[in-house]
Amino acid sequence: MPLTTIDKKAALIVVDLQKGVLNLPATHPVGQVVARSAELARAFRGREFPVVLVNVVGGAPGRTDASRAAQATGQSRPTPPPQWADLADELDPQPGDHRITKNTWGAFHDTPLHAHLQELGVTQVFLTGVATSIGVESTARSAHEHGYHVVLVTDAMTDRDAYAHQNSVERIFPRLGETATTEEVIAMLKENV
Questions:
Q1: Superfamily for the 10-191 domain
Q2: Domain extent listing, the chain
Q3: What is the spatial distance between Cα 155 and Cα 152, in angstroms, rounded to a whole number?
Q4: N or C, which terminus of the chain has less Cβ within 10 Å?
Q5: For 45, which DSSP code?
């Protein structure tokens, strides 16, 4: 469903646009995803809407095929290089931005994100970032379950897998909320001043 309105209390959530993640392969140019997210962040700040910048520093402890394969070869989870979790410089983090550091895919699980948004009276969240089918989708699912109006800015996200990205955008996101492009969101932000 296309974007219909911007609530009086909207927030932008930028998921995992951090230096280490941005070096991984992606199906869409990561530089464009970062640039569009930065443009949205400036527009949200200009409207005095909250901007939430999310980074990931770990992983959930549950067993997966990948963790079993690593154990079978005697490998452990590698230590990330310095600055791996640092946000992309282009996002130009501001003192008023809220930062969330997570250890799982979604930005709501085991973090203060929901409490922070509730304290601000936020009713609508706009999501950008990586990976579309992992961090962004998990955060969108939780936002939907918490009762937020969810908007997924589909040209400001990417994934390592083209099919996974397409599946999220075409099949999952329409069930979680509205979808829009960066240009559509910016235009509506300007209209509703």
A1: Isochorismatase-like (3.40.50.850)
A2: 10-191
A3: 9
A4: C
A5: H
- H or E element: which one contains 163? helix 162-167
Taking only the tens place, the pLDDT of each residue in 147-193 is 999 999 999 999 999 999 999 999 999 999 999 999 999 999 998 76
Strand residues in 87-170 grouped as ranges (E): 98-102, 124-130, 149-158
pLDDT band at 72 (very low <50, low <70, confident <90, very high): low
**pTM of structure:** 0.91
Do the beta carbons of residue 113 and residue 106 sit within 8 Å? no
Q: What is the pLDDT of residue 84?
A: 79
44 neighbors 96 (Cβ within 8 angstroms)? no
For residue 96, report the phi and psi dihedrals to the nearest 5 degrees.
Answer: -80, -10
